[in-house]
Design the sequence.
């Protein structure tokens, strides 16, 4: 291959996250709803019949489908399916910072409004046990408890330590992740949902 061929190929390509073609892609919607006492954030409780994370609190969302127009449409479609509402009831959708998880997924969170004046929620019982809302102002006043989750490196038994400097004593770089816990009445909001919630609250706090 000639130099010009290489340069032209590099010039034409758009960089992405290395290895992202092998990642599963998910979108999540942080739903804002207007009630008599002001803005609320809507949460779901996952159905107790679900195979993964039954009974945990989450935002509507799910894995991208090949028919989705983009990541925002994935969030709208999943929200529509889970809450039993039309996509047209979801508006003013804006992206939050996306996340790369250590488990091979990219999560695209969005914040958006659901107009409850023109629609009635009919949660999909196969996926949603219940829904509830929390006043945004109350969430801004809540101080989450923060705990550390430490990740460690465990090479497989056949790992070729003899091929690397330091061998079995190699100084692997590890990290800790903040895990947020929000407590509201009898509900515990944690994990990915709490991380997205905390990120959203920080964003609006920046605007005073």
Sequence:
């Amino acid at each position: 291959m000639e130099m010009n061929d290489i340069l032209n190929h590099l010039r034409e390509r758009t960089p992405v996250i290395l290895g992202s073609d092998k990642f599963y892609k998910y979108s999540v919607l942080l739903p804002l709803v207007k009630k008599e006492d002001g803005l609320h954030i809507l949460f779901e409780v996952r159905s107790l019949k679900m195979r993964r994370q039954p009974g945990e609190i989450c935002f509507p969302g799910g894995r991208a489908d090949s028919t989705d127009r983009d990541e925002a449409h994935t969030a709208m479609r999943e929200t529509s399916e889970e809450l039993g509402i039309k996509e047209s009831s979801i508006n003013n959708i804006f992206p939050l910072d996306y996340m790369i998880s250590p488990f091979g997924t990219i999560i695209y969170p969005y914040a958006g409004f659901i107009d409850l004046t023109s629609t009635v929620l009919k949660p999909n019982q196969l996926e949603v046990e219940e829904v509830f809302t929390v006043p945004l102002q109350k969430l801004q006043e809540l101080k989450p408890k923060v705990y550390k989750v430490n990740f460690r490196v465990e090479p497989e038994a056949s790992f070729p330590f003899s091929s690397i400097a330091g061998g079995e004593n190699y100084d692997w770089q590890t990290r800790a992740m903040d895990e947020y816990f929000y407590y509201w009445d009898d509900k515990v909001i944690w994990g990915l949902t709490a991380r997205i919630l905390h990120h959203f609250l920080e964003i609006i706090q920046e605007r005073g």
Observations:
- The chain has a mean pLDDT of 93.
